[in-house]
Amino acid sequence: MSLVQLTVNGTRQQVDVPPMKRLLDVLREDLALTGSKEGCGEGECGACAVLLDGVLVNSCLVPALQVNGSRLCTIEGVSTEGRLHPIQQCFLECGGAQCGICTPGMILATQHLLDKYPHPTMEQIQEGLAGNLCRCTGYMRIFEAVQEAAKVA
Amino acid sequence: MGYTPQSGTGLLGSSPLRKEGRDKVLGASRYIDDQSLPGMWHGATVRSAIARGRIRSISYDPAVDWAQYAIVTAADIPGENTIVHLTRDHPCLARATVNHPEEPIVLLAHPDKTALLAGVRGVRIDYDPLPGVFTIEESEAAVAANDTERIIWEGSDAGGTANCFKQYCMYSGDAAETEAGLEAAFDTADFIVEGEYATGAQEQLYIENNGVIAECFRKPSGGIESVCVRGSMQCPFYLVHALTLVFDLPEDKCRVIQVETGGAFGGKEDFPSVIGSHAALLAMKCGHPVKMTYDRAEDMAATTKRHPSRTRHRTAVSKEGRLLGGTVDFAIDGGAYATLSPVVLSRGTIHAPGPYKWPHLRVRAKAMATNLPPHGAFRGFGAPQSLFGLERHMDKIARTIGLSPEELRRRNFLGTGDCTATGQPLNEPVDMQHLLTRALHEAGYHEKLARFTVENKTSSIKRGVGFASFMHGTGFTGSGERRLNSLVHLDLLPEGRPQILVSSTEFGQGTNTILCQVAAQTLQLPYDEITIARPDTSVVPNSGPTVASRTAMIVGKLIERASQQMLATLRAHAALPEAHTADDFHAAGLRYLAKHGTLRESVRYEPPTKIYWDDDLYRGDAYPGYAWAVYVAEVAVDMNTYMATCTRFDALQEVGKVMHPVLAKGQIEGGVAQGIGYALYEKCMWKEGRMMNNQMTNYIMPTSADLPPIHVHFEEVPSIHGPGGAKGIGELPMDGPAPAILNAIENATGVAFNTIPLLPEDIFERFTSLGHPHGGSEDLDVTVDRDTRTEAVEVTA
Ligand code: FES
Ligand code: FES
Prior knowledge:
The structure holds 2 protein chains of 2 kinds.
Chain A: E1 2-8, E2 11-17, H1 23-30, E3 49-52, E4 55-58, E5 71-73, H2 86-94, H3 103-116, H4 122-128, H5 140-152
Parallel strand pairs in A: 1-5
Antiparallel strand pairs in A: 1-2, 3-4, 3-5
Helix pairs in contact in A: 2-5
Chain B: H1 21-26, E1 41-47, E2 53-60, E3 70-72, E4 97-98, E5 104-110, H2 116-122, E6 123-129, H3 136-144, E7 164-171, H4 175-188, E8 191-199, E9 211-218, E10 224-231, H5 236-247, E11 254-258, H6 272-286, E12 290-293, H7 296-302, E13 309-317, E14 323-333, H8 341-351, E15 361-368, H9 383-401, H10 405-410, H11 432-443, H12 445-456, E16 461-474, H13 480-484, E17 487-492, E18 498-501, H14 511-523, E19 531-532, H15 551-574, H16 582-596, E20 600-604, E21 613-614, E22 619-620, E23 625-638, E24 643-654, H17 661-680, E25 686-687, E26 690-691, E27 710-715, H18 732-735, H19 737-749, E28 755-756, H20 760-769, E29 793-794
Parallel strand pairs in B: 1-12, 8-28, 10-11, 14-15, 18-19, 24-27
Antiparallel strand pairs in B: 1-5, 2-4, 2-6, 3-5, 7-15, 8-13, 8-29, 9-10, 9-12, 13-14, 16-23, 17-18, 17-20, 21-22, 23-24, 25-26
Helix pairs in contact in B: 5-6, 8-9, 9-19, 14-15, 15-16, 17-19
Bound molecules: FE2/S2 (inorganic) cluster (2 copies).
Residues 38-41, 43-48, 58, 60 of chain A line the site of one FE2/S2 (inorganic) cluster.
């Protein structure tokens, strides 16, 4: 077991876990943050995506040991006191979430994308979200949500 | 964009926020894997390593401390060892024989999830292998040769013959008259055009894998009192039915709760009966709640997929381009057990004639057994398969007789008042001519056709356009809705607000939202006033399964009627004024509740009096309504990489009243994306019945970077059968993309590809075999269709 210290959504946390435990499981099991989902467990679907020190990572591929001392943002940290972040509001209004299982990862990928390109082109959106699979929407409503969010933000 | 809460009239057709959408964007929705129960254990499945054989022995590695595990085999099943759909051929756990790879044999549970892998590895199963059949052709050959070694399925309590789960023979009229008509048509036709078309298996690939949590409750005497399963699923009452048999319990002792479900597409229609029964057996054995969730590899290897298919067409055509007669032989690969194959086959059969007039038509259809895991429901349910064959064949006919694909279809479209091939008169307006005109216009089809022909001559990127015209029936086939006999409740909650109770489930399509819209519009209340109860079979009535594009039209209509009843009750007994505000409604509701205690409006399905279906002759009104569509695809084929890409897609459909434009668009776009995947990306690789690429790394679905702009267009012609004129749209978008894309690829390259999925390696192989490794369209031989191995023949010229 290893003691891992990290800041999650602004709160300092400390967990005692096997060093190779997946960050995804640390979040879901040790910290009860179940917003990050497992779709594949092999870095393909992005349902488990979180922002690790501002970088979009698939938490199913990150061992706990590696996040010691890091700052982490998960879907639970995107809204403030129950108020939707503009990205979340746009996903809701544009129909960017259908079954919702890809949505947490998709929203974090969008946040990352808009940090990098506040006014992204369609190509930048398509490339920026290409690591996040959605089987429901065909992505068109998601693209619209991202474009709307870029206008609001 | 922007959302203004609306009330009453005008709500249907507006786009209020998805009911459960806020929780979804917050990441606060609780899917099954986000839940746990006190003392919960975890379950796993030990599966067959071979495709077919006898189980000689099951042994347990002494190095594992088995006292820590609960172990379940077929011998532990208290009721019948069957997962019942239509037949009892499908065992819950294999006992003496296995019939497909990954067939479940032993179940294990352990308090610690991480201990399960060692347990699964510690169970050793020895087999005496038997020969298997792995394709439709091998299965047919075994029957033809009467090769008893390879008869892998003998028939069942519900019919079927050796290696064949179900057969249909559908005629466009009286059987003898149609046969005579066909003979005359083939004798006198100017052209006879033949073709063979094939489609592959497709994985639903919902992003949330199958998962459940089960509990088993004991009587003081120790006997089983009841079971309860919650999980990711489409049809809670299907699982209730399965549990009653496996546990030999009455229905009210088998409780099923659907929790937030992360995509389904048919893949969670019948399969939850398997995983749900398994988890409940483990809960019975260990005395704890048991969670079973599959990982991606297990979900892909062991659960259902879309049926592979083969369609053979033989068509008599006049030189003016009239269809004079046709025969269609349609076969699907059902896998090892019947499961839903007879129903999938039925929908494929009924959709095989497409939106065309056939003076004489015979469709022969069969579902064959193979030693693959059973194939099951997937959006479209047989129709995408037979429509792929038909819409490719229509382009072939056009090319053979020298008409444009557009003109050929125009000369044969069904219209208002015509009869479909099952003899159903189309009483509601149908205007395929207009749909085709508009779809081609929206897509810029004619301009592109001309431009690409010129540009392709000098480019190594060949571009093309193609389209497909088709329809999809709403609701259960024939007498299906009559048999389902669906029931809905509308309750008035203590605070005077209405709540919908149905077993119809939300898994992304928008069930919660549209049913609340229907109630709000009818009750003349704001949308936010209406809630919908979680589908828990101990609380909600059986409003039928959430399949077959039936929820909006059939269940929606029941909600509309229940709402009308509630208004009438409150007007008659609680002085609700004719034109009321939400406050008037609450006040009247509270007055009523004060006097009577509760208010529940229950409405049961009433079959339209004019709908008639004959199951034996397979004739009559196949569906209460149809959605009609023309889809246009634009493609680019790179002759250096052999990559075919869809570069633009236009989807025009007539779906009755569009209830929620944002959700409707999302449904169509999502279906089109799956259809593009079906055509160009998603290939299941099989070896001896086992899926070899059961990972997201090597089974490729389209990403955001792969898809073209998808333009969705609607025509609204209200239907009398649906609430506010709506029809079903869920499955429709799956039918059109694959044939439209392959038609466009033929337009681009001059080569007819008639098998999907079509990946670069397939295109490469075809061009190399044609002897034109870098061939341009101008020097490709277009008259010989090598893919189908049959050639069009001109009978008289
Ligand atoms: S679960 Fe991590 S990428 Fe799919
Ligand atoms: S909304 Fe279902 S996977 Fe994206």
